[in-house]
Amino acid sequence: MPSRPKIMCISGPDRTLPATGAVNAEAIAIACAHLAAGELVAIPTETVYGLAADAANGEAVARIFKAKGRPRFNPLICHADSLAMAARHGVFDERAQRLAKAFWPGPLTLVLPKTPGSPVDDLVTAGLGTIGLRVPAGPARDLIAAFKRVVAAPSANLSGRVSPTRAEHVALQLGGDVALILDAGSAQIGVESTIIALDGPVARLLRPGGITAEAIAAVLGEKLQRAQHGDAVTAPGMLASHYAPATPLRLDASTIRPGEALLAFGPQSPENLPEGTDNAVMVRNLSPAGDLTEAAANLFGALHDLDACGAEMIAAMAIPDQGLGEAINDRLRRAASRP
Ligand code: TXA
Ligand code: MG
To answer: From edge to edge, which strands make up the β-sheet containing 249-250?
Structure first.
């Protein structure tokens, strides 16, 4: 593996980078060649950047676990270009088909019984009888369509650390382990996919994410069962401590102490901001307009910035728990929890 990865620009869903169709085609062809050779490629999805490998190649998948320092019991999500491709690897009942048709391509992962005979390596599913599947939006999907098979891709960060929403985040954490980083600018959604398990009679929310639980429940016509605290076995990746910056983080801050940096939300006015904000080492406001979609998109980038600013502690203001706020608060709680 090269020690400095090649970074190729590709136009993303937000079209922030002016790559042309020809540039995209060349980058995708090179990425496919790396995947076929069993190497790792960092790919831009609409949620966060993923660390991709051919899901049927056990050695390539083992490289993902090694690069991330990820425990082997924590399964990976498989990414397909379509429901048809996904259906070769997971068993879609009527509910699963309805959700896939409503939300794919998009930030929804379905955990389904694994199709017998699927070539996806057992390492990907951590030997479970289920498989996590999603169809991402944007260039990641174009890449999978060109590769013609599913790719396993966890978020492209070291295990337990802050997820990457920009190519440079990947380069900093995993630059020595990937053959190529496809750079499509900032990830549009900014938090990972919502994970729904449909391997039993009741639909379970394993991880809140880029599609609100309310929107999913509305399409299903039933309430989602929420994973209980300590349900770590059914959602192995949902370890209490995760998404963590190196700097300690505290929640629900209403005052800022000396040496602290502030993760703010809402109006930049003295009435809204915590006492002591003026002395903060750095301030990042997730959304001065108080918009939760904007806040989700800015969350991990803000944590990366605050983590690098030299503060002793990151103090986070309270965020409303509705809609995408559920996913933001889930990530912040895990980021604040120390092993
Ligand atoms: O938005 C996303 O989902 C991003 C992008 C790259 O697609 N990916 C991502 O992957 O967040 P990762 O590996 O960081 O998180 C995958 C989660 C873990 O919590 C894992 O336990 C869960 O999905 N998961 C995967 N397969 C599963 C299965 N068969 N049963 C239960 N949980 C599963
Ligand atoms: Mg992750």
So the answer is: 249-250, 313-316, 260-264, 283-285
Angle at 146 between CA 179 and CA 9, to 5 degrees: 50
- HSE-up of 229 (CA within 13 Å, CB side)? 5
Ligand approaching nearest to the C-alpha of 107: 1
State the distance from the centre of ligand 1 to the C-alpha of 164, rounded, in angstroms: 15
Q: Which atom of ligand 1 is nearest to the CA of 49?
A: 6
Q: 50 alpha carbon to ligand 2 midpoint, in Å?
A: 9
- Rounded Cα distance between 52 and 32, Å, is 11
Question: How many angstroms does the Cα of residue 61 sit away from the middle of ligand 1?
Answer: 14
pLDDT tens string 126-147: 999 999 999 999 889 999 999 9
Is there an atom of ligand 1 within 6 Å of 108 CB?
no
C-alpha 257/C-alpha 273 separation (Å) is 13
| Euclidean distance between CA atoms 28 and 35, whole angstroms | 10
Is residue 206 in contact with ligand 1, taking CB distance under 6 Å? yes
Contact predicate 324/230, CB 8 Å:
no
Q: Determine whether the shortest distance from the Cβ of 45 to ligand 1 is under 6 A.
A: yes
Shortest-distance Cα residue to atom 19 of ligand 1: 237
Atom of ligand 1 nearest to the CA of 74: 21
Please give the residue that has the higher pLDDT: either 330 or 14. 330
pLDDT digit string (tens) for 211-239?
999 999 999 999 999 876 555 445 555 66
Which one-letter amino acid corresponds to residue 101?
K
Residues 271-322: tens digit of each pLDDT = 999 999 999 999 999 999 999 999 999 999 999 999 999 999 999 999 999 9
Is residue 207's pLDDT more than 60?
yes
